[in-house]
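> Could you send the Chitin-binding type-4 domain-containing protein prediction when you get a chance?

Sure thing. Input:
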Amino acid sequence: MVLKSTFTFLAVATLAVFSATPVAEAHSWADCIDWKFNNPKKQDWTDKGGKCVGYARRFPTGKAFGSLDSDDPSRHYQQVRKNPDSALPCSNHRAGVEPGADETRANPPSKAYGGKYGQMTVTAVGDTLCVRWPAKNHAAKNEPNGMVQINLSKVRNGADISQQELLKNTIARLPYRNCMPGSNEDRRACGGCFKVPVRASGIYLLQWRWMLNKNEWYTSCADIQIGK
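Output:
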């Protein structure tokens, strides 16, 4: 009887230890599509170093940086592993290995922005856009420095194109580990900048896409309004 009680106590204590142990999330997303530095000569990706003026589709504002993998739905969307290049380019909250937030195109696109969501990116040909993302434990020295793909549709004011077509329109490759220093590998702020290519005035699909492991891609989608 004593042995049984002791075993029960140890089992419960062990379960409590595991339950109290924080689980590190390991997936990333585009936290901001148009990040503006307070000092353009110094790239500071932290909340003290700038502000976001353009977001992904239906991106909730007012949340702590890097915390949205704990929300329901989460922001990270992992495309199917067997053939990710044939997967949906933007999460619909259902498809994918890890369904994320609803990033399907709204009609009109402006319905996915404003109110409880962040605003749409408004830019022009030749402007510099800076995209920010959380490290999510993948910016350490022993992690591979994979590249973030920035894909931009050539279809103006139209439906989202396929992932295969987006891959024909990669306009930038940004080092994933371009991050701020810090001991919290999960919440380190990272980012990269690129020039807006020539497009006729209109609204276009922009995709942030990053491969964690082979055939394990994470994406974020945004509508950006490009002017001359």
